[in-house]
Amino acid sequence: MAKKKSGKRKRAQEEDIALDYDDNKSNQPGATANTTFLPLTGQCHHYRKVGEVPFDIQKYWHQRHSIFSEYDAGIQMTDDAWFGVTPEPVANQIATDLSLRAPDEKTTIIDIFAGAGGNAIAFALSERWTNIIAIEKDASTLACAQHNAAIYGVSEFITWVNADCFSYLSENRSTIDASSTVIFASPPWGGVTYSNTEIFDLSTMHPYSIQEIHKACTDMYSVLYLPRHSDLRQVAKLAPKDKKIDIVQYCMKGASKALVAYVPASST
């Protein structure tokens, strides 16, 4: 993932935004606000040596340069964020594929589980989107995402929202133009035990089932980043009438990391 070197891309906002939806009901897509970067907290870390790293995330830390190629520039992560971040080559390929797949009228992308920022950064670097909105419920994780996007030179092209994504989508339904919006969802999969089954039951995905996520964005083109062994029958049930879902397995070094379902919007 190369750092952004130019300002060719149209800014999504006049200034960087860290919107706290619960405290400011005027925070809606397209709104502007004073520049606010959330401060890094004690939950944000840049581990330099394996001895500093909690045991359960050491295997991810050993892959840190595949997760963020600019890791040594000071990438920050909360411990929980290591489990959900999309590896950089996969994030870049998804951004490229989505740029080609999404119809031209799609100009806004909302990353509803932004995490440490990997996908939002890739979307910004693709220079495909007029507006990029990244929603993250945990303030410390969002602070990491803002910090990481700044390292890649794209933080000002992303609207940052500190909120519960379901509340945000529900309360802003009247101001979100479904015809021009794509939802990207890389939800929590329920911890490391998700891989213990041969076929993953998406209805048990914790804390949000696939049905709950799909219901929140059914009227918009949506892109779902899911476990590689997800039950494809459950994914197929998300298809609107007379439309199909494209499913792509994304691999690194010959091994699948995840599948992505490209789900058309339901007819209105």
From TrEMBL:
Q: Where is the composition biased (Basic residues)?
A: 1-11
A Gene Ontology cellular component where this protein is annotated is:
nucleus
Q: Where is this region: Disordered?
A: 1-32
Could you tell me one molecular function GO term of this UniProt entry? Answer: RNA cap trimethylguanosine synthase activity
Q: Does the keyword Methyltransferase apply?
A: yes
Q: Which Gene3D superfamilies match?
A: Vaccinia Virus protein VP39
Which catalysed reactions does the entry list for this protein?
a 5'-end (N(7)-methyl 5'-triphosphoguanosine)-ribonucleoside in snRNA + S-adenosyl-L-methionine = a 5'-end (N(2),N(7)-dimethyl 5'-triphosphoguanosine)-ribonucleoside in snRNA + S-adenosyl-L-homocysteine + H(+); a 5'-end (N(2),N(7)-dimethyl 5'-triphosphoguanosine)-ribonucleoside in snoRNA + S-adenosyl-L-methionine = a 5'-end (N(2),N(2),N(7)-trimethyl 5'-triphosphoguanosine)-ribonucleoside in snoRNA + S-adenosyl-L-homocysteine + H(+); a 5'-end (N(2),N(7)-dimethyl 5'-triphosphoguanosine)-ribonucleoside in snRNA + S-adenosyl-L-methionine = a 5'-end (N(2),N(2),N(7)-trimethyl 5'-triphosphoguanosine)-ribonucleoside in snRNA + S-adenosyl-L-homocysteine + H(+); a 5'-end (N(7)-methyl 5'-triphosphoguanosine)-ribonucleoside in snoRNA + S-adenosyl-L-methionine = a 5'-end (N(2),N(7)-dimethyl 5'-triphosphoguanosine)-ribonucleoside in snoRNA + S-adenosyl-L-homocysteine + H(+)
- Family that this chain belongs to: Belongs to the methyltransferase superfamily. Trimethylguanosine synthase family.
Q: What is this protein called?
A: Trimethylguanosine synthase
